[in-house]
Amino acid sequence: MVSFNNILFPTDLSDNSKEAMKYATSLAEHYDAILHIIHVTLGTNQYLAYDVNVYIPEDIRQNERKKLEKSLEELPPDELGAPSSVKHEILEGLPVPEISQYIKDNNIDLVVMGTHGHTGLKHLIIGSVAENIVRSSPVPVLTVHAKE
């Protein structure tokens, strides 16, 4: 029999991830599993693309972090159900390695994540976090397309 004790829902907090959140919440509730909701941010590295010498004041970084924490803590919304346990975490770094390490470090049994549905040149240039996790994950990954 298949059993899930730890379900991971990595989210970019976009509208595209809302459909996947429904599945993650429902499965965590059904299996009485811990729902791990994580967001990976590039942190201060996100500004390096603009200017290598950029200085971001500490208060601005802390304010951005607080906004992310607040957004994450609001998940899942009450109308989606109530898993018995939900853990929220913000990770800093590149999404694929951070998610992969989280899977290993937290005994994740299932990953549920949304896809953006990029195709063609945009997919080739941007790539896909979901696709890379599917290819590298040691556990099953359920990918969910956003509703049109």
Our count of helices gives 5
Give the strand order of the largest sheet, numbering strands 1, 2, ... along the chain: 3-2-1-4-5
Order of helices and strands: EHEHEHEHHE
Instruction: Provide the low-confidence segments as ranges.
Output: none
Distance N to C terminus: 34 Å
Instruction: State Rg.
Output: 16 Å
Strand content: 15-25%
DSSP E strands, number: 5
CATH class category label:
Alpha Beta
Helix content: 25-40%
Give the name of the CATH superfamily: HUPs
The best one-word shape is: globular
Architecture in CATH?
3-Layer(aba) Sandwich
Largest sheet: 5 strands, parallel
Derived structural class: alpha/beta
What name does CATH use for the topology?
A: Rossmann fold
Please give a structural write-up:
- The chain has helices at residues 18-30, 58-73, 95-105, 120-126, 129-136; strands at residues 6-10, 34-41, 85-92, 110-115, 141-145.
- The chain has one domain: HUPs (Rossmann fold), CATH 3.40.50.620.
- Helix 2 (58-73) links the parallel strand 2 and strand 3.
- It is globular and about 55 Å long.
- Helix 3 (95-105) packs parallel to helix 5 (129-136).
- The chain is α/β, with parallel strands linked by helices.
- Strands 3-2-1-4-5 form a five-stranded parallel β-sheet, sandwiched between helices.
